[in-house]
From TrEMBL:
One of its GO terms (biological process) is protoporphyrinogen IX biosynthetic process. GO terms for molecular function: hydroxymethylbilane synthase activity. GO terms for cellular component: cytoplasm. Residues 234-309 form the Porphobilinogen deaminase C-terminal domain. Pfam families: Porphobil_deam, Porphobil_deamC. Signal peptide: none annotated. This is Porphobilinogen deaminase. Residues 5-221 form the Porphobilinogen deaminase N-terminal domain. Belongs to the HMBS family. NCBIfam families: hemC.
Length: 327
């Protein structure tokens, strides 16, 4: 018997591409299922003038969509929501759960220079050059290596940010973006350089898609289990637990790196917490054998968080007053 699944996501071009990817994964695996994609505006899409941390964080991307998972109107009701996993709160409201995680695309952050720029990396930029990023995690880590640069907020979808960058009248000498989004939109050719963990750890869940469902929706969970990615799930569950245990919100400067070796069965998790000015940092790692995907991945995140807290990570986070950040 044929079945229809209603997929919800945000209205941005990237979000639509991501929802279509999940549609393809499901329909490829289950030929009797037809998926429809619905693109909806959220409060986060409407607020483009201020940094995210200043007016509500990750819930801005999720609440309107979550309401539709339980909508009484069958013409509006959604079955699943597709998010960039890095935008999903690590603790979901009652009645919702993370139903699955898709295979990760490049989780790194990347440098984008304006067209015609002679610069290929941050090392050659003169003192006082303006780097555009709305992420406290990115600016805090880069201030450790490049204290002579200025970091200012830039909002908007990827095309908007790149258009601002290329405008000869703009104030930015470069911008920092997620490599995965650039590649999913066919903009990989604009990536000037990518950052490894020696310069910048990526965001929790970056490069992966998280699929939100109604809690205890066993039928949908069974479908998602068949299309999601074990290796990515192990890494991202550990990363999300690390952030949850550190009590980190949307934009606090927590960076991660993870690698799950399916041959040995070990997960290698790294994390960093940096003060907003880049002057203090706690950077540690944890390894753990993964016998049970959910239990052991979460345990690895907890163990690393405990280790980081005992070395001062929570003190750094507690001293952050996002209202007073000079971006």
């Amino acid at each position: 018997m044929s079945r229809r699944i209603r997929i919800g996501g945000r209205q941005s071009q990237l979000a639509i591409v991501q929802s279509e990817l999940v549609k393809h994964l499901i329909e490829q695996k289950f030929p009797d299922i037809t998926c429809s994609v619905f693109a909806l505006q959220t409060l986060g899409d409407q607020q483009q003038s201020k940094p995210l941390y200043s007016f509500g964080g990750k819930a801005l991307w999720t609440k309107e969509l979550e309401d539709l998972l339980y909508d009484e109107d069958d013409n509006r009701k959604l079955d699943i929501i597709v998010h960039s996993l890095k935008d999903m709160p690590t603790t979901l409201p009652d009645g919702f759960e993370l139903g699955g995680i898709t295979e990760r695309v490049d989780p790194s952050d990347c440098l984008v220079m304006p067209q015609g720029s002679p610069h290929k990396n941050l090392d050659t930029l003169p003192a006082g050059s303006v780097v555009g990023t709305s992420s406290v995690r990115r600016s805090a880590q880069l201030k450790r290596k490049y204290p002579h640069l200025r970091f200012e907020s830039i909002r908007g979808n990827l095309h908007t940010r790149i258009r601002k960058l290329d405008d000869p009248q703009n104030d930015y000498q470069c911008i920092i973006l997620a490599s995965a989004g650039m590649k999913r939109l066919g903009l990989g050719y604009r990536i000037t350089n990518t950052f490894d963990s020696s310069v910048m750890y990526h965001a929790v869940g970056q490069g992966a898609l998280g699929i939100e469902i109604r809690a205890q929706d066993k039928e949908m969970k069974k479908i998602l289990d068949a299309v999601c990615h074990k290796n990515t799930t192990v890494c991202c569950l550990a990363e999300r637990q690390l952030m949850r245990s550190l009590e980190g919100g949307c934009s606090v400067p927590i960076g991660v790196g993870s690698r799950y070796d399916e041959t040995t069965g070990y997960l290698h998790l790294r994390g960093i917490v940096v003060s907003v000015d880049g002057k203090q940092a706690v950077e540690l790692n944890q390894e753990l054998a993964i016998n049970d995907v959910i239990r052991d991945s979460i345990e690895c995140g907890k163990l690393l968080a405990e280790k980081m807290i005992s070395n001062g990570a929570r003190k750094i986070l507690e001293e952050i007053n996002l209202d007073k950040i000079d971006q």
